[in-house]
Specification:
Layout (H helix, E strand, L loop, with lengths): L1 E7 L6 E5 L7 E2 L1 E3 L2 E8 L2 E9 L2 E4 L5 E3 L5 E7 L23 E2 L12 H17 L16 E2 L4 H10 L4 E6 L4 E7 H12 L7 H6 L2 H11 L16 E2 L4 H10 L5 E4 L10 E5 L1 H14 L34 E2 L4 H10 L4 E5 L5 E6 L22 H15 L15 H7 L1
Parallel strand pairs: 11-12, 14-15, 17-18
Antiparallel strand pairs: 1-5, 2-3, 2-6, 4-5, 6-7, 6-9, 7-10, 8-9, 12-13, 15-16, 18-19
Helix pairs in contact: 9-10
Length: 425
Amino acid sequence: MVLQRFSWPYGGRRASFCGSFTGWTECPMGLVGAEFQVVFDLPPGVYQYRFLVDGIWRCDETKPCVRDEYGVISNEVLVENNAHPVVQPEPSSVRGINMDEGTILTTMPPEPSSQNSGVQIAVFRHGISGILLHNTIYDVVPVSSKLAVLDTQLPVKQAFKIMHDEGLSMVPLWDDHQGTITGMLTALDFVLILRKLQRNIRALGHKELEMHPISAWKEAKLQFYGGPDGAAMQKRPLIHVKDSDNLVDVALTIIRNEISSVPIFKSLPDSSGMPLLNLATLSGILKFLCSKLQEQPEGYSLLQNQLVSIPIGTWSLHTGRESIRQLRTLRLSTPLNSCLDFLLQDRISSIPIVDDNGSLHDVYSLSDIMALAKNDVYARIELEQVTVQNVTHCLLLLSCTSFGCAIPGEWPKTVPYLFADEYLA
């Protein structure tokens, strides 16, 4: 952190200060000698700021100036981690303006000054970290919501049917003997069961799915899916967070354990009730973060940039952008079994589906597999013989028969495949 002094030496009866790092909230300035001053402790980075002098917004022409997309001028400062943390005068980008009382914000510089993208990203990360550190997961939990919990003694087949009917891709498991939440049942479990059934490896037969409880499948999974040395999977304690944990710790818990969600337990559990408060997901944290950013969008100029100018996300090779991981895409003719294999091997939640021209046609997500639980479709198909396109047609057929639609002999190519997801998700 660097102590940075801002001053207004051009007179006035009253002066306030605001900047991108204050969320453009006004801060009073103190009169020191003949000038108004204010000091902030800031991390290194690039910031914009303005002065409000006697009710009129002004900027200092002796300091660098920039123009935003609305034509409003602000001063700009680069805070560096050096031994002299003060605002250094530099040639102005605004010319021909009366200096007697500073610059009134009514003119625009001829060219907006450029910013170092690396510094922009550093400033943005600092702001995001501040939001995540000063808010707990309890702040993200909705005031009112419906949360489904399944008993571990519920038959596997019935559990997946409930998940499909309720539009759930994951659900906490309650163990009545232990009197607590002991695990999660997810779309990944459904995928693993299908792979075992279709490869004729004895796990749970179709009829056994109607009788065997979830707990039996969880024990079987530990034996069937072992490490490279053939050892069985090790059962690990339930990963969870507390409602008092900050968002940084919750997000890191999800990422480091490579899970899609984590149960939120009450910090002070009631011995007579369930400790589970809700589920935490990265998407839920992101929504909360976006709501906070909307409250002070001016403070995060990085968000005004185009996606192509920021090195984030996964890019395909033809874009010319380097990426740690190549963008995985699949064709409509790809067998469903291969699609599921890629989802598991690459540890991703969805894959773009493209046509022969490479144009985006759809996105197949791991949670889409739950649609096969409707009317036991999974028991009547072969994963190796069914393509992604076949599955989409199958879902469309199910949705139409469920809602009494006419079924044509051959599906028109103009029918959007996302149509089925609107009813079966």
